[in-house]
Records
---
Amino acid sequence: MTPGHAYKAVEVGEDARVIRTRADVARTALEVLTTEGLDALTHAHVAEIAGYSKTTLYTHWPSRVDLFSAALAGLGELQHHERTGDMRTDLVEELKMFRQAVLDLRLDRVLSAMAQWATVDAMRQIRDTLNTEAQRPIRTILEEGFEGAELEAVISMLAGVVACPSLMFGTLPDDDVIEAAVDVVMKSAGGAGRAKRRSAES
């Protein structure tokens, strides 16, 4: 995975030392968030573990929201399933990849922290960015059979199969649950696809 570029763009002209600092702090902030929780994500604690001064952290990340954003930068890009062209297979495998990311990257901790800060505008933007990254392949697959409100509904339903149990109950769905959720969506895909084609032809 390539850390950082999805959430913290590297400024043109930045030297290697600044780039390294950003990467070190992002990695450390993510480690603190996922292993110790949101309360431990402070400038002093991250600075101590990363080996930088608090002044350096406050210079680049003035607030805890900025520090949380740095932690998300440590996620890099989520890994995605290579598409086969079969909608059911691609949806099932993509949701399994999302489930694995929750385990590997401790996204349950990240989602929980987001829920605590959901009313903060800056955090809402970060949450939306992460959701977009997670949902992008699912959206691309489903656009072949759905559009409009139905498209948004099925994206939310399928992404929620993994995200909601993780956030609400600290559990993850097994393969049977993921496949059942996809099958529910697939039952309506044919009708939605026909409606989409009729709309395009009119």
Note: The two ends are 44 Å apart (CA to CA).
---
Amino acid sequence: MTRLRLGDTEVARIGLGTNRLSKTPEHVDFIRDAVTAGVELIDTAHTYAGGQSEDTIGAALGPNPDGCVVATKGGWNGARPEVLRAEIAESLRRLRTETIALYYLHRPDPETPLEESLGAIKEHRDAGQIRNVGISNVGVAEIERAREVVPIAAVQDRYSVSDRRHDDVVDYCAGEGIVFVPYFPLRGTGGGPLTEIAERRGATEAQVALAWLLKRTPAILPIPGSLSLEHVKENLAAPELALSDAEFGDLL
């Protein structure tokens, strides 16, 4: 399966992370070219590159990015309701839109009850400024608490072939129909069976690592970061590399 439903939109199963995106003409063109190449989910955050990531995406795509979901996050440096309200307003301005397609609580704030943080996000969802809500850097118990406040369309945690600390979250999301968005999906990959499979299949190691994630569960949507259109195109081709059960097992 090369596509999945993320909230209210169907998208390709390889997205693009933009934590290094800066406000330059080259990067504005890069975002436009990435969407033309087939990227249908762009992931950013209020804090990325000091706000330049959101600014660049807004400049590249404008208020209605045709065929592309732009997801952003807030609450990294504290998630009190008033902080989130201010960050959401700024993200709307930077992205040049009236509605954010997917908005994550970037991480729970130990000084603020999770329910209060998500309550502020729900306010904006109820007002039509956010369409779908996600939560990041969480475990299963926190996801369940979050779902008591607002429907959760996506969960974003660190996960890859070499980093499986959130296996339980992946399984929970798969069972509950929630999209799991692994960040750093290529971190720490390479060598051993992964290299052997890549050489045998005429693929890159990154493509094999992404193909493993896609086979792990149909609910996964990786967001490898890149500033290279060539690498973006390589990543977008990963769903064509269907691993066999034996190859998948070799990487377990």
Note: The chain has a mean pLDDT of 96.
